[in-house]
Write a structure and sequence with these properties.
globular, single chain, alpha/beta, TIM Barrel, 8 strands
Length: 224
């Protein structure tokens, strides 16, 4: 990509180190790009969010590029990290703050080279071994899950809260808990030391709307 076409953006917003457990928001599985920016903005303005991950599966690169270009400015303008699911190449080319890769996506070591100093997160299911490998490959955070049943992914691996607790107690690399997390069930994950709670349905399917979903998650984190 030539310098003249590289998008300008604020300084990359990194995933912060341990302070307080925070919401890590993942986009819904399907969205209307033209209207979703306003919906996302209302969620971001409602309460504290650490990061937004754009996760759209089974769409072509043109759709991904349009989604990034529409949503990235909304997120970064609010000082929130904007991460791309799986595609570190698109994250770099389109001014994202980093990328998240799964075990069947771009290998972590390869993604690290592509991303340079940008944020890299790695899915580790319920595996301490995979998490240690991810950290060795330069992950800025690891993600364990699914902790609860979820409709977002098929055939998710159940995760043990003790894996989360172990990592939080002995490792400095931040940890994300993911999978079916809601305001009603998140307390044990917060208490076990999760740095971030990755949520989808708890926000986008909230009966009172996404903004209410974000506020409910933050209230539950504080209460825990």
């Amino acid at each position: 990509m030539s310098k003249k076409t590289k998008p300008k953006r604020p300084e990359a917003k990194a995933i912060p180190q341990r302070e307080r457990c925070r919401v890590y928001l993942i986009t819904p599985p399907a969205l209307e790009i033209a209207t979703f920016a306003d919906t996302l903005a209302s969620a971001l303005d409602a309460a504290d969010i650490a990061a937004v991950q754009l996760r759209l599966k089974d769409v072509d690169d043109d759709v991904l590029r349009r989604a990034i270009d529409a949503l990235r400015p909304v997120v970064q303008a609010r000082g929130v990290a904007f991460l791309m699911n799986d595609r570190p190449d698109l994250a770099v080319a389109h001014g994202c703050d980093g990328a998240h890769v799964g075990q069947s996506d771009t290998p972590a070591a390869v993604a690290r080279k592509v991303l340079g100093t940008l944020t890299m997160g790695v899915t580790c299911h319920d595996s301490r071994h995979l998490a240690l490998e991810a950290a060795e490959a330069g992950a800025d955070y690891v993600a364990f899950g699914a902790f609860f049943p979820t409709m977002t992914k098929d055939a998710t691996t159940p995760a043990d809260i003790e894996t989360l607790r172990w990592w939080a107690e002995v490792m400095e690399v931040p940890v994300v808990a993911i999978g079916g997390i809601s305001a009603e069930n998140c307390a044990p994950l917060v208490q076990a030391g999760a740095d971030f709670l990755a949520v989808v349905g708890a926000v986008w399917n909230h009966p009172d709307g996404p903004a209410a979903g974000v506020r409910a998650m933050n209230a539950a984190i504080d209460a825990a």
